[in-house]
Amino acid sequence: MSPMEMLVILLIGLLLFGPQRVTELARNLGRAVSEFKKGMNEVAASAPPPPPSPAEISSRPRDAGVPDASHGAGAGH
Predict the structure, then answer these.
(1) Dihedral class, residue 74 (left if φ above 0, else alpha if ψ from -120 to 50, else beta)
(2) pTM reported for the whole predicted model
(3) pLDDT at 52
């Protein structure tokens, strides 16, 4: 949205509701956005981390203490 469009919307709001009501609406909108962001941050913080991508898995060094499936017991040796 361009600054000119925002200015036109603000002027129409002033004409329809008056300056005190527009100020109150803007304040309430700001509080609502703030609460929404706070809620989104809480959800993101409590969500489990995403699983690693295949590229991350293949770039990890192998752990010497963990045998892979091809060298374990019952692999046909």
Answers:
(1) left
(2) 0.48
(3) 81
